[in-house]
Specification:
By secondary structure, the protein is of the alpha/beta class. The protein has helices at residues 2-19, 37-52, 67-79, 96-104, 130-145, 166-184, 197-200, 207-222, 236-248, 267-275, 286-302, 334-339, 346-349; strands at residues 26-31, 56-61, 84-87, 108-112, 124-128, 154-159, 188-189, 230-233, 259-260, 280-283, 310-313, 318-324, 327-330. The structure holds beta-D-glucopyranose.
């Protein structure tokens, strides 16, 4: 079956090269879901920038984070003659078979934002420094509470990301690298006792799942007026869940609303930051990441050296990686960072 697919692919690719001699190549872009703002942006910027560079682009979203759909869409991209695949994997370990077929057919694979594990059939990885994202979140908590000056104790809860997304553990571990010592010495207290990744993870990163877990935590631990000082959330979709649960439970900004961290600068979260319903986020400029992925693909197809600045081990080999820089965002710098850079208009952030 694999051989037949590989043979068909070779034929399709020969025909498509003959048929589209003018295109720089055909790129299959595989995104996880349209339900999060983040991936709509990545998909749009990748498509626009690849097209501007002369590529034909096939852009697909895998339903709402559906792994079999992502696999089927990748197979179709191969059959349609894509000679490069740019993939943001839903599940880091579920694409091995289809990628082995791609490799046999000489198709290059770039992991976009998320590493794909347990395969030798990926070529490059473009992302932001994910551990650093978590460090920025954790350091924000340390600085805002004055933990290094011995202040405390403060109560903290944690909401992490999808266990299938390898980034999620990097974010969590990065944040923990900053706050663990204060949990150990009692300056931070997690009243629910849920401090390990497996306990605090949020399958598929959904707001509703994070909100439901936060509802339960509040009901079980904070209903009687016990203060909650921090909810350390790995990204904006989960932060929005925490915010919704806290507002519903009667927590009020300026009175007892906790510090809430996030990541992505989703419009909904930036609006929350402006209102004090979220404290910070991380700006990952998806225009820059898309440009980096396009640069990698250009170099690979031209047979030129590919610029990288790190490696990430995917359990099989050290994947040459380019890390882009994640930036801290809060109410004091969002205008310059997000509006000034042309990422958002002022109107899009107005209520
Ligand atoms: C990305 C984050 C995003 C999360 C949920 C992660 O892989 O790096 O930016 O918030 O997925 O989509």
């Amino acid at each position: 079956m694999k051989k037949v697919l590989a043979l068909t692919l070779t034929l399709v690719m020969i025909l498509s090269v003959v048929g589209s001699a003018m295109a720089a190549g055909k790129v299959g872009v595989s995104m996880p879901t349209k339900s999060l703002q983040r991936w709509n942006e990545d998909g749009d910027y990748l498509k626009a920038q690849f097209e501007a560079a002369g590529y034909e682009v096939e852009l697909q979203y895998a339903g709402d984070n559906d792994v079999p759909t992502q696999v089927a869409q990748l197979e179709t991209m191969l059959l349609n003659g894509c000679n490069v695949l740019v993939i943001t994997a839903i599940d880091a370990t579920s694409l091995g078979t289809v990628l082995a077929t791609a490799k046999e057919a000489g198709v290059k694979v770039v992991c976009h934002d998320r590493i794909i594990l347990d395969t030798d059939a990926v070529d490059y990885y473009a992302t932001f420094d994910n551990f650093q994202v978590g460090e920025i979140q954790g350091q924000y908590v340390v600085d805002t509470l004055g933990l290094a000056d011995g202040k405390g104790p403060f109560n903290i809860e944690f909401i992490a990301g999808d266990p299938g997304d390898n980034n999620a553990t990097y974010f969590f571990n990065g944040a923990m690298s900053k706050v663990q010592q204060y949990l150990d010495n009692g300056q931070l207290v997690c009243v629910s006792g849920q401090t390990t990744f497996d306990k605090v993870a949020t399958p598929k990163w959904t707001t509703a799942t994070a909100q439901a877990r936060m509802d339960d935590i509040i009901a079980a631990n904070y209903a009687g007026g016990t203060p909650l000082d921090v909810v350390l959330c790995s990204n904006d979709s989960t932060a929005q869940g925490a915010t919704n649960a806290l507002v519903a439970a009667g927590f009020e900004v300026g009175k007892n609303f906790p510090i809430i961290t996030g990541q992505d600068c989703d419009i909904a979260s930036v609006k929350n930051i402006i209102k004090g319903l979220q404290s910070m986020s991380i700006f990952k400029d998806t225009r820059i990441l898309a440009a980096r992925t396009v640069t990698i693909v250009n170099s690979v197809l031209a047979g030129e050296p590919v610029e990288t600045n790190s490696t990430v081990n995917n359990h099989v080999f050290d994947v040459p990686t380019f890390y882009c820089l994640p930036l801290f965002a809060d109410v004091n710098n969002y205008e310059e960072l997000l509006i000034g850079s042309g990422y958002y208009t002022a109107e899009s952030l107005a209520d």
